[in-house]
Design a protein that fits this description.
alpha/beta, Rossmann fold, six-stranded parallel sheet, three-stranded antiparallel sheet, 19% strand
Length: 244
């Protein structure tokens, strides 16, 4: 079933301009949702692209965001210890969490201490299902990146997890290092209220065009499979990644 997705493309001259604008939008969105609902739930992404965004959130908007009311989750994680340089959690901790006043109980990292990654995925899913109902929207905002081959979170091309219909969190073997990862799946991502893709770099232009226009099957370009049933998608892109 193809949903009528509200999708918007916002193009910027460079990653710094993109990040500053996205940070302001996130600040405004958090304050609006918290004033209405009392809390804000967000899933963060890994990689290098969000670093500048985190910088603005932790400096320009550090004091205007009600961090006590923000619940932070993760879209995926490499199955390494949280102090490993490849850890998404460590990147977020160093670029954002260590720089803001947020209760530790508001930070929901994906566990990587289980011997079996499948047990870790099941544990994280149980935690998510205690917070979100089986109907309606899940996250208020999901931040996603995209790889040059169109992967997002740890949903890689032709992975069996792309056809998952029930599970929210799954352990996967990625065609990248480190191989073992845990990722959120389409069933939970596509129930988010807002999804922001941050995409920068000329090497991602081909996949971005396919994903934005949804001309590629999501098995070949997983980012094309992100289309929330009752939410919006905003593509924050720089001029190297997207040409009109």
């Amino acid at each position: 079933m193809v949903h009528d997705v509200k999708s918007e493309i916002r193009k910027f001259s460079n990653l710094d301009e993109l990040s500053a604008s996205a940070a302001k939008e996130i600040n405004d969105l958090i304050n609006e949702v918290v004033s209405r609902k009392g809390r804000f739930t967000i899933a963060l992404s890994g990689g290098n692209t969000p670093r500048l965004l985190h910088h603005y959130l932790a400096t320009t908007y550090r004091d205007s965001i009600p961090w006590n009311s923000v619940q932070i989750f993760f879209g995926d994680e490499r199955y390494v210890s949280h102090d490993d340089k490849q850890s998404n959690y460590l990147m977020v901790k160093e670029t954002l969490l260590d720089l803001i006043s947020i209760p530790l109980t508001n930070i929901h990292s994906i566990p990587t201490s289980f011997i079996n990654p499948n047990e870790a995925a099941q544990d994280y899913e149980k935690r998510l299902r205690k917070i979100f109902s089986d109907t309606g929207n899940t996250f208020d905002l999901v931040l996603l990146g995209m790889g040059k081959e169109g992967h997002t979170a740890s949903l890689f091309p032709n992975s069996p997890v792309l056809d998952e219909k029930e599970r929210w969190v799954i352990a996967v073997e990625a065609p990248a290092i480190p191989k073992n990862r845990i990722t959120l799946t389409f069933p939970i991502l596509n129930r988010a209220s807002e999804i922001y893709f941050l995409v920068s770099g000329a090497e991602k232009a081909e996949a971005l065009g396919a994903a934005v226009n949804r001309i590629s099957d999501f098995h070949a370009c997983p980012a094309a499979g992100v289309h929330p049933s009752n939410g919006n998608v905003v593509w924050w892109v720089d001029s190297t990644a997207y040409e009109d």
